[in-house]
Amino acid sequence: MLLAILLPFLSFMVRGKIITGIICLILQITLIGWLPAAIWAVLSLNNARADKRTNRLIKAMQENQK
Questions:
Q1: What is its subcellular localisation (predicted)?
Q2: Count of CB atoms within 10 A of residue 66's CB?
Q3: Is 65:35 a contact under the CB 8 Å cutoff?
Q4: Per-residue model confidence as pLDDT tens for the chain (66 residues)
Q5: Which residue range forms the structural domain that includes residue 33?
Q6: What is the DSSP string of 19-53?
Q7: CA torsion sign, 7 to 12 to 16 to 22?
Q8: What's the predicted TM-score (pTM) here?
């Protein structure tokens, strides 16, 4: 989470989203764009975590039905 706030573009790069990271870096280069870039990175990280959690729940439910 700290990485997403301090270096938003790097947060995307570490998660394998290279093109998104480059776009975020371009936004981050401007002083005004730093805040939107940080917000974008944090929201993206939270969405990825929620998707991962949802997939685990679906998998667990499917295993219980068998």
A1: Membrane
A2: 4
A3: no
A4: 777 788 888 888 998 989 999 998 898 888 788 888 889 899 999 999 999 999 999 999 998 886
A5: 2-65
A6: HHHHHHHHHHHSTTTHHHHHHHHHHHHHHHHHHHH
A7: negative
A8: 0.76
